[in-house]
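Memo to structure team: turn this sequence into structure tokens by end of day. - J.P.
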Amino acid sequence: MSLFKKIVGSSNKESTNSKIGWKPLIDLGQLNEIVDFSNEKPVAIFKHSTRCSISRMALKQFENEFNLQDKIDIYFLDLLNYREISNEIANRFNVIHQSPQILLIKNGKAIYHDSHSDIEAAILNQYL
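Reply from structure team:
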């Protein structure tokens, strides 16, 4: 079973075949890397609840729309398994925790974030 399949869950087969080059966010130390990387290239974080149908729908829509593979790096957070990372994201980037949620980090700061049905991949283009 692939790492992404383990993160998202085997019931969401569309996500396991995603065209997005997801990087699993599984360690608090990766947030320091994200801040550093964001000085060179914008970084997105998608926070997903594997038990929530709304989150699953937002993820599927995002994956279907996403076409920025060369413009941003993108991380995937399974917030049920890594809630402490989600809490630190809220603290570090001064955003209220929500699920599902997308954040765009540039030069170490969250320059955009949205949640639920407002998550749209096309909006990220406006911030690049």
